[in-house]
Amino acid sequence: MNDLQMPLRLGFAPSLQGIDFLVAPCNREAVAWLDRWPDWPAPALVLHGPGGCGKSHLARIFRDRTSGRDLAWEHDGPEEAVSALETGPTLIIEDVDRHLDAVAERTILHAYNTARDLGHHLLLTGRRAAAAWPLRLPDLRSRLLAAPSAAVKSPDDDLLRALLVKLCADRRLSVDEAVIGYLVRRMDRSFESAGALVSALDAASLARHRPISRALAREVLEMLAGRSCAKSE
Questions:
Q1: DSSP letter, residue 44
Q2: DSSP label at 127?
Q3: How far apart (Å, rounded) are the C-alpha atoms in residues 105 and 42?
């Protein structure tokens, strides 16, 4: 099938407010820990789970709720991390296990010590639990292994169905419940895939001047599967 011609259109505004986050068995542990803040037993909390499971969404909600700051791996080091914690109660450091090197470890260690001294907190995220991170600094490793950790798992069918409904509502799309069920049974099982799928459905519907039916859903799934195969070659 040929790629659809995607029309120009105004952007949309998905809701990222905490009240709209979909709580389910796969993320309930993580949500409970974030709700406990600032009553954490250590200066840091580690959220871990596969790509697309919703860690970044949770991190954004936590940052906004606590008036925290994000660490930018591109240009922030130990001084910037310390400064952020001196001026705010929380610092969010995402994708730790994808950025670990000597500078990153020093940055996290300084941030941890500063948070401990000030009574502030770090939220760290990664695809694996801290015990699996290749940490070389013994002091940092011991601190992170002692910190509480919460797993965020891949979404199940019920959560994917609710997520698709929410994403369609964000774009003001009308999609029949039977079409949602059809998509859930065939889509890649991640938050990222759900977002890409709804975006493609929206664009395809506009390009073809057709409502989102099962036939259009099948075409979009085939298109996305083709793109995925092309990237892997």
A1: E
A2: S
A3: 18
DSSP label at residue 187? S
Q: Which two tokens stand for residue 229?
A: 């195969």
CATH 1.10.8.60, domain 155-232, yes or no: yes
Token pair of 188 as six digits? 């890649």
Q: Reply yes or no on whether the pLDDT at 233 is more than 90.
A: no
Long-range own/partner contacts, residues 227-231 (CB < 8 A, 24 or more apart): 228/188
Percent share of the chain, pLDDT over 90: 73
- What is the distance between the alpha carbons of residues 226 and 161, in angstroms, rounded to a whole number? 23
Helix, coil or strand: residue 42: coil
Class of domain 25-151: alpha beta
Nearest of 115, 106, 146, 112 to residue 129 by alpha carbon: 146
Amino acid of residue 186: R
> How much is the CA Rg of the chain, to the nearest whole Å?
20
List 122's β-bridge partners, or say none: 44, 91
**pLDDT-derived band at 214, boundaries 50, 70, 90:** very high
Neighbours of 15 (CB within 10 A): 12
Domain boundaries, the chain: 25-151, 155-232
Would you say 96 and 127 are in contact if contact means Cβ atoms under 8 Å apart? no
Q: What percent of the chain has pLDDT over 70?
A: 88
